[in-house]
């Protein structure tokens, strides 16, 4: 059962990271905690849309949100990436792929499709 829970958590992290807006938000939060309105500022979308992105990041455990007075603050939770990082490191033998060499390999190994 724990393996299924870990797989689900990993799925949620990767699903959250799949969106470029959410990756941009995480990059912004690397610097410091930010108010939701400040997070939303550089994006050409509604505050409601940003809130949905923040909700997905929160459910994946990548950020936390805290109410301070009238302002909701977002904080990066870098430990949430640990399991994803460990999972990706298991593929370490495939690191540093030279895409040009890979393309040459595919052309040599696969029959001409054209």
TrEMBL record:
<dbReference type="InterPro" id="IPR011991">
    <property type="entry name" value="ArsR-like_HTH"/>
</dbReference>
<dbReference type="InterPro" id="IPR001845">
    <property type="entry name" value="HTH_ArsR_DNA-bd_dom"/>
</dbReference>
<dbReference type="InterPro" id="IPR036388">
    <property type="entry name" value="WH-like_DNA-bd_sf"/>
</dbReference>
<protein>
    <submittedName>
        <fullName>Transcriptional repressor SdpR</fullName>
    </submittedName>
</protein>
<dbReference type="InterPro" id="IPR036390">
    <property type="entry name" value="WH_DNA-bd_sf"/>
</dbReference>
<dbReference type="Pfam" id="PF01022">
    <property type="entry name" value="HTH_5"/>
</dbReference>
<dbReference type="GO" id="GO:0003700">
    <property type="term" value="F:DNA-binding transcription factor activity"/>
</dbReference>
<feature type="domain" description="HTH arsR-type">
    <location>
        <begin position="2"/>
        <end position="98"/>
    </location>
</feature>
